[in-house]
Amino acid sequence: MSISPSISLPPTPKALLDLIKLEAGPAPLPDSRQALWISLAAYILTETGGQLVSADIPPSIAYGLVSAALLAALTFGALLLTGARERFQQTLIALTSTGAIIGLVSMVLSLAVAQIFPPPMPALKLVGFVLFPLVLWKFTVFLWIYRHAGMRFIPAFALGAIYLGFILLILSPLLTRLFNLI
Question: pTM to 2 decimals?
């Protein structure tokens, strides 16, 4: 006789966990305006918090807002072009909520690395190295969600790569330099 403990999660956290594990699509997630605003706010907060580890407050807030707006605009445009506009709200909820969870993990790991290695150490390069698998996981989850929204593999791959590449390699340094000039 084996006793196996089982934890029963409410439907939304279970759907998010299944989505992050790539075991289900975004269909079980709630499809409401309230869920959209909550997930967008969570995404903005975690993106802002992730930038606060290495940047000042104004560029970090701008980064959170611009990255969320860019995600929404690119997703809307891509779904409009593929004829799946009706899936926009639920797709954006899935993208922002999973992005917020991965962003929260990333932020905690960034803070941990910054605490373990004091400032004379090259902490930012080490953080980038440690967090690279999370960037790949975020890309994979976004690709999974876009595929479940009705996009083909190549456009979904390109959209995820362009979005993550732009916000990480161009937007973050650009906003930091821009706010340093002001």
Answer: 0.88
